[in-house]
Write a structure and sequence with these properties.
By secondary structure, the protein is mainly alpha-helical. The protein has helices at 6-30, 37-43, 66-73, 77-88, 103-120, 137-145, 165-168, 188-197, and strands at 52-54, 60-62, 93-97, 172-173, 186-187, 206-210. The strands form 3 sheets. It has a two-stranded antiparallel ribbon. Strands 3-6 form a two-stranded antiparallel ribbon. The protein has a two-stranded antiparallel ribbon with strand order 4-5. The chain is globular and about 55 Å long.
Length: 215
């Protein structure tokens, strides 16, 4: 097989995405998104997937496996061709959002992560986390020089209208227009219900491909 062939590039990208998946799963676990994974395994050593979030509806949503992601990409030739085109455009960074978690949970986790990074760096935090594989030495140095001013007593600003907005249904996702009544969007609960009804292995999560220089 030609090392520069589209198929070879496709498989190499999937291999890299597998690494990103493992890294993301471990990071989400470390941040506390899945609760206590070890307690779940201790209670049931045969549990196939201990990486589970609890959504705004109190239901449990297991993390989709990388096998599920690959199956979606390989669903049919048209789908595979679509993703191959996206890979060539540079959209190769796998991003997984535990969508079913409430905004307040997301904010609490983000706040704790920022403060942990701040403490680890001896009271410093920087405005960007470099992607080592796609960053030059000069860019790394520039990032290190861009220290982000942080108030450790109040490290994160949240618009007060966002508090509980997804659990109450005041916030809608994916609107088709900015009309307060006929926005065409859906509440988080409506999206979760639709995913569950469809039997989607991605229920409770948003899985996206991003460009490494644009996220």
């Amino acid at each position: 097989m030609n090392p520069e062939s589209p198929e070879r590039h496709f498989e190499a990208t999937l291999f890299e995405m597998q690494r990103q998946y493992n890294q993301t799963r471990d990071a989400l676990a470390s941040d506390g998104c899945f609760g206590n994974v070890f307690d779940r395994l201790k209670a049931d050593p045969t549990l196939e997937n201990p990486y589970i979030i609890t959504g705004i509806d109190g239901k449990e949503y297991p993390l989709p496996s990388f096998t599920h992601i690959k199956a979606e990409i390989h669903k049919n030739q048209e789908t595979k061709d679509f993703y191959l085109e996206q890979f060539h455009r540079g959209f190769t960074h796998l991003h997984i959002t535990p969508f079913a978690l409430s905004i307040d949970q997301h904010m609490a986790i983000l706040k704790a992560t920022i403060l942990a990074e701040y403490k680890k760096n001896g009271g410093h935090i920087y405005s960007a986390t470099p992607d080592i594989l796609h960053t030059t030495l000069a860019q790394l140095q520039a990032m290190q020089d861009q220290e982000f001013p942080l108030n450790p007593d109040d490290p994160l600003y949240q618009w007060d209208q966002y508090t509980n907005a997804d659990t109450t249904g005041d916030l809608v996702y994916f609107p088709t227009s900015f009309d307060k009544t006929n926005h065409g969007g859906k509440t988080k609960q409506q999206i979760l219900d639709a995913q569950t009804t469809a039997g989607s292995p991605f229920a409770g999560y948003q899985v996206s491909l991003l460009h490494p220089h644009l996220h």
